[in-house]
Specification:
The chain is an alpha/beta fold and 220 residues long. It is built from eight helices and eight strands. The strands form two sheets. Strands 1-4-3-2-5-6 form a six-stranded mixed sheet. α4 runs parallel beside α7 and α4 packs across α8. The chain is globular. The protein starts with 5 loop residues before the first strand and ends in a 6-residue tail after the last strand. The mean pLDDT is 94.
């Protein structure tokens, strides 16, 4: 089993490496799912070769500078699974506006219309034949002595994202255009724009229900 360690920021070598890649994987661990009340405690970054950084952000109100530079780099696509919460919390908690980004969950819902199973575990099982252990999902990420099991769980959330992204892109590219002429890839690009706008409404206080649903345009 690989050993993972916490960092206060990316190293110069990690920033140099990942700044040259077309895409990287990113995830966060949080206190909970309430904006303002809850904060980003850990940011995970990974690539297709299995390199992973676990950057502790607990107690910070700003983003570590090298991590910020990478997350805001316009030349590097940031891959998330369920990007809505990640980019909202990174903006609210650490003041980072992540761009550009791609949500593998949204892409899965666009193209994997044969199933309702769009979780990270579902995609990793289908595309890679790997069974992810999610037992550490609901644990205390604010503790100073994160266990090896927690660190492995956090790393797993980014280890496979680049592969999943590439599988999904191939599926999107293979899907025939709709009668309107728009392609699945074009729809995916519009979905990412819509997610960014969705986050804008949430951060402006227009979230309803659990805080993540927008009912601004509902006819009631």
């Amino acid at each position: 089993m690989s050993e993972y360690h916490l960092q206060e920021d990316l190293t110069e070598d990690q920033l140099a490496l990942w700044s040259k890649l077309p895409e990287i994987a990113v995830d966060t661990e949080l206190h909970g799912l309430r904006l303002v009340r809850d904060q980003v405690l850990l940011v995970q970054v990974g690539d297709a070769r299995g390199n992973v950084a676990l950057v502790r952000t607990s107690g910070r109100s700003d983003c570590p500078p090298r991590l910020r530079k990478l997350l805001e780099d316009p030349q590097v696509l940031k891959l998330f699974h369920f990007a809505t919460s990640d980019i909202a919390f990174l903006r609210q908690s650490l003041g980072v506006r992540v761009a550009p980004f791609f949500c593998t969950r949204a892409a899965s819902r666009l193209v994997r219309t044969y199933t309702q199973a769009h979780g990270l575990k579902d995609l990793v099982r289908e595309f890679l034949g790997i069974e992810l252990d999610k037992q550490m999902q609901q644990t205390d990420w604010s503790r100073q002595d994160l266990s090896p099991q927690q660190l492995k769980y956090a790393a797993n959330d980014v280890l496979y994202l680049v592969d999943l992204y590439r599988h999904l892109v191939r599926m999107l590219e293979a899907r025939p255009p709709l009668p309107s002429g728009i392609t699945a890839m074009e729809l995916a690009a519009k979905a990412m724009e819509a997610l960014d706008l969705h986050v804008e409404f949430i951060l402006a206080g227009y979230g309803a229900g659990d805080g993540w649903r927008i009912d601004l345009f509902e006819h009631v």
